[in-house]
Amino acid sequence: MERANEFELPVHFIMAVFGGFVGAYAILARMEVFGSAQTANLIELVCSVLGRNPEEVLTRVAALLVYMSAMVVAAVLAKKVQWNLKYLAIFLDASAILAVGYFPENMDPVMALYPVFFVTAFQWCVFQGAKGYTSSTIFSTNNLKQTVFAITEYFLYRKEEKVRKEKAEKALVFGGTLLSFHIGVGFCYLIWLQYGIHSVWFGSIPLLAGAVLLVIQDVRAKAYTREQDSVSCS
């Protein structure tokens, strides 16, 4: 089991880098629309309904449906197939950023981010956390909360080493994810200054790194399984 999850935490951090990257791209290049979550979209949807803007309502409803459809697909695939959905998530992420980079700059910013809405929701469902902790790779609020809690509790339990060790690990997971996400944000900003709308293509760098680690992890796990099988048979 340990072999099968050898690079679980590094891969999680790398996907958080991508999450920060694509989230920053959406804000920087697509008129401050955050493509990784639905809170702002739902607020805008309610305002559009009350403001009687049917075109904007349809655009926002479509964005919501795209986001929800990714969750449905992820849930169905997790139940019905035996694939490693992490590979599929990375493939979909790569396909989305390839497409979005070709969308014209004057395109409706919400529509331009439909692929991002889909793949970030799918990534959220597939890369759910590491080390037994549920931690999002596409936004930060809960990661910030859990990091603060873990660090605070670490200092509260001064005489309980086992508890302190658990809190330190928790702080590492959530704090590392938070840091990784914002490394992705910073990376995107620097690239965006140079390449503008096409900067999204550089998101392929963390995706490639994550895919490579997953392949190495799977190869090592299979080799270890074969080795154990041969030992048990001899």
Automatic annotation (TrEMBL):
Record's signal peptide: none
Pfam families noted in UniProt: DUF1275
Xref: InterPro entries? DUF1275
Q: Which UniProt keywords apply?
A: Membrane, Transmembrane, Transmembrane helix
Q: Where are the transmembrane segments?
A: 7-28, 57-78, 85-103, 109-127, 171-192, 198-216
Among PANTHER family, the record links this protein to: SLR0142 PROTEIN (PTHR37314), UPF0700 TRANSMEMBRANE PROTEIN YOAK (PTHR37314:SF4)
Any idea what this protein is called? Answer: DUF1275 domain-containing protein
What species was this sequence derived from?
A: Sellimonas catena
